[in-house]
Amino acid sequence: MQVIRQLFIALMAISLSVSALAQVQVVRGKASVAYKGKAAPAEAKAQALSKAQLKAVEMYYAEAGESEAANFDAVRDKIVADPDRFILDTTVLGEEDNAASQQYTVAVKVSLNLANLRNAVKANSAVAKAGRSERSPMAFLVVSRQVDSVKSFDDRVYKKVEAKESYESSDSFSESSKEGEKVKKGQVSTHASGASEQKSSATASRSVERGGSTTKKAAESSWRLIPSANLNQIFTASFSKAGYKVSEAAMIEPYTNGQFKLATVEDDYRSGNDLKPATLASLVQGMRTAQFPYVTLGTLDVNMSDEDPNTGLRRVAVTVNAKVLDISAAIPDTIASVGPVQYAGVGASDDEARTNALKLAANNAARELGSQLTNLGVR
């Protein structure tokens, strides 16, 4: 049983890995057409089926994102003219012929040939129509990394107590006396009387006011870079297939007259999510010296692994942030960007799950950036 379970897990991992990079996508579409008569003729049914297939393709592009959706207009006519090239098979899920309203409706499930769809979009792009000498070179610098250490801080607590006291008192004193003497027959007699009165009052009050504050400081993370030669190949291959002239930053560094240092960029990414202004300035100046008008920058952040609840395999999520800079102008401009967006991969081990997640993230990020550049007419 243990052997069977391990075999099942391995097969599942292979299946999930293959499906992540598959060139076939199953989508659904629905369409209605009006007709005249007591029942829908064959022509009306064929027309509805064709519209439903086109709706399915449009649904795929709509779910793929804004940049991909903009590419749908470029391939619409080609799909209508030759649907078999882009639609591998069609399954009718349901149909309804409403004679009262003279309307026929059909719902379908189709399998799309994504490779041919993407090739059709690329063939219509500005970079594909340009000659190789007319295409602008692009520098590529995307790093993959994983959290190495996290530094957290205790809360800073400040307490304040203010006390106020007041005291009031009053005293009053009065005294009266009376004396006299009397002489009679050679004798002297005296008499005296006196009275005294004293009053005293006091009032005291005390008030206390308490306050303070608590200051929290965000944790600081440091990263370790993961060797990403395979990921570089995925990115560069995707851009190259689209027609762009892509070179890795390490290959360009010797031609920047020492203005660009790859190690400096990597050090910045080890300690934060953004490049320091000085690093970015040297990068831009160095690429201009090497005559590279476009630079692709980004990070693939690998999260900690956990167990996938559906398969029991190891699961790793990767967060993507990437952008393409146009540095031909005086002030660099971001002309395409993706993220932050997260992709997950599974595998029999942590390393396998991480590799699958990174491949999935790299493929999708490169495709999204390429679509945005195509829409802009960059070549």
UniProtKB/TrEMBL annotation:
<feature type="compositionally biased region" description="Polar residues">
    <location>
        <begin position="187"/>
        <end position="216"/>
    </location>
</feature>
<protein>
    <recommendedName>
        <fullName>LPP20 lipoprotein</fullName>
    </recommendedName>
</protein>
<keyword id="KW-0732">Signal</keyword>
<feature type="signal peptide">
    <location>
        <begin position="1"/>
        <end position="22"/>
    </location>
</feature>
<feature type="region of interest" description="Disordered">
    <location>
        <begin position="169"/>
        <end position="221"/>
    </location>
</feature>
